[in-house]
Structure formats: structure tokens, C-alpha cells
Amino acid sequence: NAAQAQTPSHEKKTSTKSTGPNGEDVQENKKHVLGVSKVNPPLNEKGMFYNSKWDPLLEQPPFNRNYQTVLDIAGHYEEHIIDQSPEDAYGDLSLFTLNLSSTISTEEMNQQSTLVLKQVLDHIHPSVMTLQGIREPLMARLKKIINEHYQILDYDSFTKDSLSAANYYNPIIIDKKIFSVKNSGYMKNSKGVIYASWVELSDHRNNQIITVINMDLFSTFRGVVESQFANIIADIKGSKEQSSNPVFFMGGLGSISKQIENLLHSGYKNVIDVDSHNLDLDKTTVHGKVEHSDDIERDFIILRDPSSIFTINYGRILSKNFPVADHYPVHAILSYTR
């Protein structure tokens, strides 16, 4: 692979201090971050989240009891709390991941993708959104939709594809009303190619630390994927703070080796496997905009949670009429274990 990870030479890494939820100083890496968190709400006893209109089970019991209400959910792009959320909203975190890689890039495609991602922020209200395969023109558009509610990280370094010469980014978007940023960065192979971005976050509501790994491991060679995933895990285990707190692996694993499969059954939780409502659903995530189904999940939200901080309430591949990308997104809702 002749691709190379690059950082624009004119950008300098600077850190400034801002005030955290308890008045403490918080370091912010301005190289990776747009925006500063301002509001620190308490944990919502009612719960804040719900299934989306792209859920393939939305019209089936028991999810259909709020069918029209779910279709009408909107307003989270600007507002953290809205009036029209379902009465039985639940969960403390909402996670969303999507791969938007494409062999071509047109202005119309980028405009549509931007509108849909803004709609996801408005409708699903993700606490964390990880994106893979973002080309430079789309990245430029995404930076413009960031507001007082949402913050974008890991948007400054890219991997150049040797065949198309396109620059690919793996940004992470977070809800500033929930999280502040402790640290962020990238994971690269020996050739300097970025295969993951990451962020370490602190929850304003309870000071819980979580780490989010935004993976883009789409090599067709299982050995390459296995090696890169093993490197990510080794880095996590090498950090005392990260290894003792929850870690979310979000994004793509192009092929699953026996070793990775064993790992997913030994303390690492795939949200799609945990949610029993997925038993009879197709697991295809890479569909290629055609009626393609191989029942293989290649896009994931995986939780490593050694202290059982979280309960996984919901996990779904959003395969019902999602309007953009060759991949279906994955959506999860979790609650803190009280």
C-alpha cells in the first residue's frame, strides 16, 4: 500500500486551557478540535434517546408503539433537549458509525451526504459519531455544520489513496453538552498510513472517562486486519487510564479472523450480537447501493468494559432506506449501570 498519512505543514499543534464541569482546567488540543464545550447537564433520569426512522424493526412490535413520534423526532441539531421525544426515551449515550468511502466524489454526492449527516445529528442525536472514508471536499463541508451543540475532532490528518490520489479522513463528532476532550490522535502503520483515529473523553455528568477508537481496517487480507486490531488493543492495554475504563471500537473490520472472532466472545461486546432483536435480521453492512446481501457484518460498535460501567440497551444496523453511502450505519444506545 503506497498510501501515506499526511498532516498539513502549516498547522501547528497548540494547547489552550478551558474550564471543565467542576471548574478544573481542561487541556484542549486545537490541532484536533473545533469548538469548546459550555453546558454540563446532569444525567437525565428519564433517558434521552430512541430508535431511529432507519431502524428496520420500527414498524414491528414492540417498537411500533411510537412509530409516528419517532418519525417526527427532530431538533437535536440545535437543541440538546427537545419537547417531542418519546415518553419512554431511554439511555445515557447514543453512538453512531458510518463509512462513506466511495470510488467517485461529486458535488451532488457531497452535498447530499452533508445534508444526511446533519439530519442524523438532528434526529438520532448521537453522543459520539465516527465517520470513515471522508474525502476532502466532504470534510470541508462537515466542518461548516459544526455548531454550539456538536464538536469535530481528528479532522486535520489524512491518508492519501495511491490509486485515486484522494485524501481520506476519519473524523469523530461529539456532543459538547455531554463530553469534554482529554486527548485525541491517530494510529498509523509502519508506512505512516492512518488506520484509526481516537479520542479520550470525559463525561461532564459524572466525570467518567471513555475512549473511542474510530477504525478503518478494510484490508481484504485477514492478517493485516488482525495485526492492526491487535496493535490497537495493545495500545489500549498499555495505557493505565484507558485499560481500566470503557473503550468503544467503532468502524470497519473488513475481514474477521478466528482470533478476532474469539476476542469478540471473551469480554468484548458487539452491540449487534448483544441485542437479541437482531437474531433474524440480515447482518450485511456493505451493500454497495444494490440488492446485495451476504449476511456479513463489516461495520461495528464494539465495547470493552472491564468494570461493567455500561449496559447495552440497543444495537441496530440501520438498513431501512438510509439514503447515502455504500455501507449501512450502526447505531447503539447504552445506559450507565447504576
TrEMBL record:
InterPro entries: Endo/exonu/phosph_ase_sf. One of its GO terms (molecular function) is exonuclease activity. The keyword DNA-binding does not apply. Residues 1-38 are annotated as: Disordered. The keyword Nucleotidyltransferase does not apply. Keywords: Endonuclease, Exonuclease, Hydrolase, Nuclease. Gene3D superfamilies: Endonuclease/exonuclease/phosphatase (3.60.10.10). This is Putative Endonuclease/exonuclease/phosphatase protein.
